[in-house]
Amino acid sequence: MDNNTTTPEKVHVLIIGSGPAGYTAAIYAARANMKPVLYQGIQPGGQLTITTEVENYPGYPEGIQGPEMMVDFEKQAKRMGADIRWGIATKVDFSEQPYKVWIDDEHLIIADAIIICTGASAKWLGLESEQRLNGFGVSACAVCDGFFFRGKDVAIVGAGDTAAEEALYLSKLCTSVHMIVRRDAMRASKVMQDRVLNAPNIKVYWNSVTDEVLGDHKVHGVRIKNTETNTTEEVAVSGFFVAIGHKPNSDIFKPWVDMDETGYINTIPGTTKTNVEGVFAAGDVQDKNYRQAVTAAGSGCMAALDAERYITAKGLA
Fold first, then answer.
1. Is beta strand 153-157 parallel, antiparallel or unpaired with respect to 239-242?
2. DSSP 273
3. Any idea what DSSP says for residue 47?
4. Is 145 a catalytic residue?
5. Interval 144-194: pLDDT, tens
6. What domains are there in the chain, each with its CATH number?
7. Catalytic annotation on 144?
8. Catalytically annotated residue among 117, 144, 174, 301
9. Which helix (H) or strand (E) holds 64?
10. Is the pLDDT of residue 1 over 70?
11. Active-site residue (options: 72, 141, 161, 211)
12. In Å, how far are 103, 117, 284 from 47, measured between CA atoms?
């Protein structure tokens, strides 16, 4: 069917977003003969497409490049019969069943069940060098990439609980961790602050900002600016981690779906069910704690099973 037609298209299961959650949901939904349609969204393959080496996903003993792994996921979903398409969901209407979703403001999909897998995007500082060296020493996930800097010196920017957790995680792997904190205090909980300040190999730079990430083809240092004295200092590091938070890609669902204060979709514990019957959420759009490819894939599986049970119970199969 022409995706730009104004005639509504009816589908059983619509999966919004790709990445491990979306593709896994598509694999399971296709195998259950639910004929899923998946729209890949603004970043086909999700955050893993901007990751280089992935070493912690089971089944890849030699590791794999993030983009290559997402191509494998997509191929498997297609082999199972999932209908994978380019396109971005730009508007939804969950006021009545079946639900309406507009793709690229043009094509209207009417779906019995919807699985939201739109993910979350890391917040960045906005430096040109940070983006240029992303994947070449710059990372937004210490748990994902910290291993590559074992025995090396790294820097991390951030002051909340996530930044403190990631700094401590890195301190167990790296020789030294240089933590850049914008104010004269952290936002992290007292217990996390105490752990950071008591770690012998974490050095905190108070009232400081990242002036520049240094390196041509890979990170070799960071220039830190003290905002009180207006002086800069260059520190030699091999890795630079940004831990200033993530923004879930959930804006278009806000009028309909319950979320927390930062926009993560709330799901009923132990399920992928949202407050809207027949609408499910999987992956990083509803997970602010783990944010790993393997947990996203697991929740994609759960969402497909939840959707299948819902469709069967409603007699829509």
1. parallel
2. B
3. G
4. yes
5. 899 999 999 999 999 998 899 899 999 999 999 999 999 999 999 999 999
6. 9-121+246-313 (3.50.50.60), 124-242 (3.50.50.60)
7. yes
8. 144
9. strand 64-65
10. no
11. 141
12. 21, 12, 10
